[in-house]
Amino acid sequence: MAKTLAQLILLARQSADMENDPLCDDAEITVYVNDGLRDLYLAYTTHYTDAYLLSQAFTVASGATTAPLPTGYLKSRGVDWWSGNRWIPLRHFNWRERGSYHSGRRAHRIDTVIRLDPIQLDLSGIYQIWYYPTAPVLTGPSSALDVLMDQWSDFIVSYAAAHMLTKAKLDNTQQTNLMSYVLEKLAGEAERRDSEPEQAPDVEANGTDEAWGF
Q1: Which helix (H) or strand (E) holds 75?
Q2: Could you tell me the residue range of the domain that residue 93 belongs to?
Q3: pTM (predicted TM-score)
């Protein structure tokens, strides 16, 4: 079974050799655990771009150019527009193109909304955004990691232990090295998976290499 918050706290104490040290209480270690979980989640979704990916449809009314981001939004992978018979991926808005003529719709983020351009077009229609939700958070002692994060829980434990050792003004080099090793291993496994024949390359909209991620 996946590790619970209580188990992660205990493992962090053991890893830092601070099992009976009152310097860091459970509430503080919980913060470290969740910070480590967030960093692991960001690394995981960077290398495994299909993991945790969600989509949400939205409608833009005639005369409008924006739509709110989904609740719990972290970062995007792209936006599609329903042309009437198929979904068409939109390119990311490029500031350098603002004065040039083009017929294609563009999408980008401004603050808490999705902005569509160019505004000279009728941008009304049905769209869908592909996005990652915010990282999971462990709240109670029995709350547990999901299956994917549990596979790399050594990073979370080392992250928490390193911060505990830093507070205690002790050497955290071993924990930091383990964190780096786990991330390198994660990246390596993702690269090997994507090199398999059945893995199609991730192609940007309209054949461009403009990176998404607003």
Answers
A1: strand 73-82
A2: 54-133
A3: 0.85
